[in-house]
Amino acid sequence: MIPVLAPLPGSPWPVLPAGIHPASLNEVGVAFATDAWRRELFDGLVDACGSLLRAGCRTVYLDGSYVSGKPKPGDFDACWDPSGVNRALLDAVFLQFQNGREAQKRRFKGEFFPSSMMCTDVGQAFVDFFQIDRFTGKQKGILSIQLPADPFLSRKVQP
Description:
It is a single chain. The chain is α/β, with parallel strands linked by helices. It has five helices and seven strands, in the order βααββαβββαβα. It has one domain. The chain has helices spanning 25-32, 36-54, 98-108, 126-129, 151-156; strands at 19-22, 59-63, 76-80, 110-114, 118-119, 124-125, 141-146. The strands form two sheets. The protein has a five-stranded mixed sheet with strand order 1-7-2-3-4.
């Protein structure tokens, strides 16, 4: 269950409370795909999750203004657990970081990083970096989506 967004003093909009919160894609859709633009972002997320699942990815962590109270997020940010991923089956776009992840944004409407990859700006793995509010430096939450067990995704993807 996705927790209620909470104000974070100094942040311009409410965010998820600190921690990693399990969620299904259906829950993400209900909570955040609330208008045409957010639905378009959600569709890109689902497409990417399906592609990652086919490569053996088990977990995606969802972050960014998409999972906040920002009225019109520009995109979503995600990172994926590389454990067990078959690189031969992984779509190359997940490893293209040039030009501000332009290829990923064009294809999926969001950005993806391996969760263990270091964010060089702060010296933390992306899964940890995503749990820091960029406006305040304080802890905030992210969502964890277990791909193989997700009923919404299993209806759309045949691994």
